[in-house]
Amino acid sequence: MYPDALKYTKDHEWISLDDAVGRVGITDFAQKQLGDVVYVELPEPGTTVTAGQSFGTIESVKAVSELFAPVSGEVVEVNAALRDRPEQVNTEPHAAWMVAIRLSDLSETDGLLDAAAYTALVK
To answer: What tens digit of pLDDT does each residue of 60-69 get?
Structure first.
C-alpha cells in the first residue's frame, strides 16, 4: 500500500529522494483522515524550511491541517497544479507531491520511516 521507494514521517508526510532534492506529499492514510481536499497552501520557491516545522496547510471539507517538512532545506519547486486541482491529493496521494526541497543535510532522512515501519505505525 505504501511505496517502498518513499520515506515517511510520523506526521504522515512522505518524501521521494532524487540526489539532494526531495519531493514531499501526504500519505494515503492522511488523505483518508482529512476527507475531500479543497485547498492547499504552499510556500513560495526560495523559502527555507526546517525539519518538523510547518511549511503550509491543507484544507478539507472536515478540517484545516498543517503540513510538516520531513527535512530541512530550500523549497525549489511547488506543484502549481494543486492550486487548481487539490483533489489530486485524494486520488493520487503518493504521486501528488506538494513541494520539492533541496536538502541542507541529507542525513536527516536517516530518521525517517521506511514503508514497513510506516505501515506498522498506522495499523
So the answer is: 999 999 999 9
Ordered by where they begin, the domains of the chain are 7-105 (2.40.50.100)
Contacts 24+ apart (CB under 8 A), 42-48: 42/67, 42/78, 42/79, 42/82, 42/98, 42/99, 43/75, 43/78, 43/99, 44/75, 44/78, 45/75, 45/76, 45/77, 45/78, 46/74, 46/75, 47/74, 47/75, 48/72, 48/73, 48/74, 48/75
Q: What is the model's pTM? A: 0.95
* pLDDT per residue as tens digits for the range 10-48: 999 999 999 899 999 999 999 999 999 999 999 999 999
CA pair distance 44, 23, nearest whole angstrom: 15
